[in-house]
Amino acid sequence: MGWYIFSVQVFKLDMSMNARLFFGYASMVLAFSLIFVGIKNFRDNYSGGVISFGTAIKVALLITAVASTVYVGVWLIDYYFFTPDYFDKYAASVLAGLKASHTSQANIDKQMAQITEYAKMYRNPFYNALMTYAEIAPVGIVISLIAALILKNKPKPATVNV
Protein backbone atom coordinates (compact mmCIF):
# COMPACT_ATOMS: atom_id res chain seq x y z
CA MET A 1 0.00 0.00 0.00
CA GLY A 2 2.89 2.30 0.64
CA TRP A 3 3.88 2.14 -3.02
CA TYR A 4 0.38 3.28 -3.98
CA ILE A 5 0.85 6.47 -2.00
CA PHE A 6 4.47 6.85 -3.14
CA SER A 7 3.52 6.60 -6.82
CA VAL A 8 0.68 9.07 -6.44
CA GLN A 9 2.49 11.60 -4.24
CA VAL A 10 5.97 11.60 -5.74
CA PHE A 11 5.42 10.77 -9.38
CA LYS A 12 1.85 12.10 -9.64
CA LEU A 13 1.07 9.00 -11.64
CA ASP A 14 -2.49 8.41 -12.75
CA MET A 15 -2.52 4.60 -12.77
CA SER A 16 -5.07 1.96 -11.96
CA MET A 17 -4.79 0.23 -8.58
CA ASN A 18 -3.51 -2.95 -10.28
CA ALA A 19 -0.84 -0.99 -12.15
CA ARG A 20 0.21 0.66 -8.90
CA LEU A 21 0.46 -2.72 -7.18
CA PHE A 22 2.59 -4.07 -10.02
CA PHE A 23 4.78 -0.94 -9.94
CA GLY A 24 5.11 -1.26 -6.17
CA TYR A 25 6.20 -4.89 -6.13
CA ALA A 26 8.49 -4.39 -9.11
CA SER A 27 10.11 -1.52 -7.20
CA MET A 28 10.55 -3.75 -4.15
CA VAL A 29 12.23 -6.44 -6.23
CA LEU A 30 14.49 -3.84 -7.81
CA ALA A 31 15.41 -2.36 -4.42
CA PHE A 32 16.00 -5.78 -2.89
CA SER A 33 18.31 -6.67 -5.78
CA LEU A 34 20.88 -4.80 -3.69
CA ILE A 35 20.91 -7.88 -1.47
CA PHE A 36 23.03 -9.51 -4.19
CA VAL A 37 25.43 -6.58 -3.99
CA GLY A 38 25.59 -6.80 -0.19
CA ILE A 39 26.32 -10.53 -0.12
CA LYS A 40 28.89 -10.27 -2.91
CA ASN A 41 30.58 -7.33 -1.18
CA PHE A 42 30.74 -9.24 2.10
CA ARG A 43 32.04 -12.37 0.37
CA ASP A 44 34.70 -10.58 -1.67
CA ASN A 45 35.88 -7.98 0.84
CA TYR A 46 35.34 -9.48 4.29
CA SER A 47 35.25 -13.23 3.84
CA GLY A 48 38.25 -13.93 1.64
CA GLY A 49 36.14 -14.61 -1.45
CA VAL A 50 34.31 -17.51 0.21
CA ILE A 51 30.85 -17.57 1.77
CA SER A 52 28.67 -20.43 2.96
CA PHE A 53 24.93 -20.50 2.41
CA GLY A 54 24.40 -19.95 6.15
CA THR A 55 26.53 -16.82 6.26
CA ALA A 56 25.08 -15.52 3.00
CA ILE A 57 21.51 -15.94 4.26
CA LYS A 58 22.39 -14.16 7.53
CA VAL A 59 23.80 -11.19 5.61
CA ALA A 60 20.82 -11.17 3.27
CA LEU A 61 18.23 -11.37 6.04
CA LEU A 62 19.94 -8.57 7.94
CA ILE A 63 19.74 -6.38 4.84
CA THR A 64 16.08 -7.38 4.45
CA ALA A 65 15.32 -6.53 8.08
CA VAL A 66 16.94 -3.10 7.86
CA ALA A 67 15.31 -2.24 4.52
CA SER A 68 11.91 -3.49 5.68
CA THR A 69 12.12 -1.47 8.88
CA VAL A 70 12.97 1.70 6.97
CA TYR A 71 10.06 0.99 4.59
CA VAL A 72 7.65 0.48 7.50
CA GLY A 73 8.83 3.66 9.21
CA VAL A 74 8.40 5.73 6.07
CA TRP A 75 4.95 4.24 5.46
CA LEU A 76 3.81 4.99 9.03
CA ILE A 77 4.98 8.60 8.78
CA ASP A 78 3.36 8.96 5.37
CA TYR A 79 0.10 7.31 6.46
CA TYR A 80 -0.40 9.14 9.75
CA PHE A 81 0.91 12.58 8.76
CA PHE A 82 0.40 12.99 5.02
CA THR A 83 -2.29 10.58 3.80
CA PRO A 84 -4.67 9.79 6.64
CA ASP A 85 -7.42 9.63 3.99
CA TYR A 86 -5.69 6.72 2.22
CA PHE A 87 -8.52 4.26 2.87
CA ASP A 88 -11.13 6.76 1.64
CA LYS A 89 -9.25 7.02 -1.65
CA TYR A 90 -8.69 3.28 -1.76
CA ALA A 91 -12.38 2.58 -1.09
CA ALA A 92 -13.41 5.03 -3.82
CA SER A 93 -11.07 3.30 -6.28
CA VAL A 94 -12.38 -0.16 -5.39
CA LEU A 95 -16.00 1.03 -5.54
CA ALA A 96 -15.46 2.53 -9.00
CA GLY A 97 -13.94 -0.74 -10.20
CA LEU A 98 -16.77 -2.81 -8.76
CA LYS A 99 -19.41 -0.59 -10.34
CA ALA A 100 -17.60 -0.71 -13.68
CA SER A 101 -17.62 -4.52 -13.52
CA HIS A 102 -21.38 -4.51 -12.88
CA THR A 103 -21.06 -6.69 -9.80
CA SER A 104 -24.01 -7.20 -7.48
CA GLN A 105 -24.87 -4.69 -4.78
CA ALA A 106 -24.42 -7.46 -2.19
CA ASN A 107 -20.82 -7.99 -3.35
CA ILE A 108 -20.18 -4.24 -3.34
CA ASP A 109 -21.55 -3.95 0.21
CA LYS A 110 -19.46 -6.91 1.36
CA GLN A 111 -16.22 -5.50 -0.06
CA MET A 112 -16.91 -1.98 1.22
CA ALA A 113 -17.58 -3.38 4.71
CA GLN A 114 -14.28 -5.26 4.54
CA ILE A 115 -12.39 -2.09 3.55
CA THR A 116 -14.09 -0.19 6.39
CA GLU A 117 -12.96 -2.88 8.84
CA TYR A 118 -9.37 -2.73 7.52
CA ALA A 119 -9.43 1.07 7.85
CA LYS A 120 -10.41 0.73 11.51
CA MET A 121 -7.63 -1.80 12.15
CA TYR A 122 -5.05 0.37 10.37
CA ARG A 123 -5.66 3.18 12.85
CA ASN A 124 -3.70 1.06 15.33
CA PRO A 125 -0.01 1.78 14.59
CA PHE A 126 1.11 -1.68 15.75
CA TYR A 127 -1.35 -3.44 13.44
CA ASN A 128 -0.46 -1.03 10.64
CA ALA A 129 3.27 -1.75 11.09
CA LEU A 130 2.67 -5.51 11.24
CA MET A 131 0.65 -5.50 8.02
CA THR A 132 3.24 -3.32 6.30
CA TYR A 133 6.01 -5.74 7.32
CA ALA A 134 3.82 -8.53 5.92
CA GLU A 135 3.71 -6.64 2.63
CA ILE A 136 7.45 -6.19 2.13
CA ALA A 137 9.31 -8.81 4.19
CA PRO A 138 8.24 -11.87 2.13
CA VAL A 139 9.65 -10.26 -1.01
CA GLY A 140 12.96 -9.66 0.76
CA ILE A 141 13.04 -13.18 2.19
CA VAL A 142 12.51 -14.79 -1.22
CA ILE A 143 15.20 -12.63 -2.80
CA SER A 144 17.51 -13.37 0.17
CA LEU A 145 17.15 -17.11 -0.41
CA ILE A 146 17.78 -16.79 -4.14
CA ALA A 147 20.81 -14.52 -3.62
CA ALA A 148 22.31 -16.78 -0.94
CA LEU A 149 21.92 -19.83 -3.18
CA ILE A 150 23.49 -18.10 -6.16
CA LEU A 151 26.41 -16.45 -4.34
CA LYS A 152 27.45 -19.22 -1.92
CA ASN A 153 30.68 -20.91 -2.76
CA LYS A 154 33.17 -23.27 -1.21
CA PRO A 155 36.85 -22.63 -0.66
CA LYS A 156 38.95 -23.80 -3.56
CA PRO A 157 41.16 -26.73 -2.67
CA ALA A 158 44.79 -25.86 -2.25
CA THR A 159 46.92 -26.90 -5.17
CA VAL A 160 50.39 -28.25 -4.76
CA ASN A 161 52.91 -27.37 -7.43
CA VAL A 162 55.43 -30.13 -7.92
What is the topology?
Layout: H1 2-9, H2 17-32, H3 34-46, H4 53-82, H5 86-100, H6 105-122, H7 125-151
Helix pairs in contact: 1-2, 2-7, 3-4, 3-7, 4-7, 5-6
By DSSP (H or I, 4+ residues per run), the number of helices equals 7
The amount of beta strand, in percent, is under 5%
The number of distinct β-strands equals 0
**Averaging pLDDT over every residue, what do you get?**
85
> What general outline do the C-alpha atoms trace?
elongated
Helix content: over 70%
Biggest sheet descriptor: none
CA(first)-CA(last) distance: 64 Å
Find the structural class using helix and strand composition. mainly alpha
Radius of gyration: 21 Å
Low-confidence stretches: none
| SSE arrangement, N to C | HHHHHHH
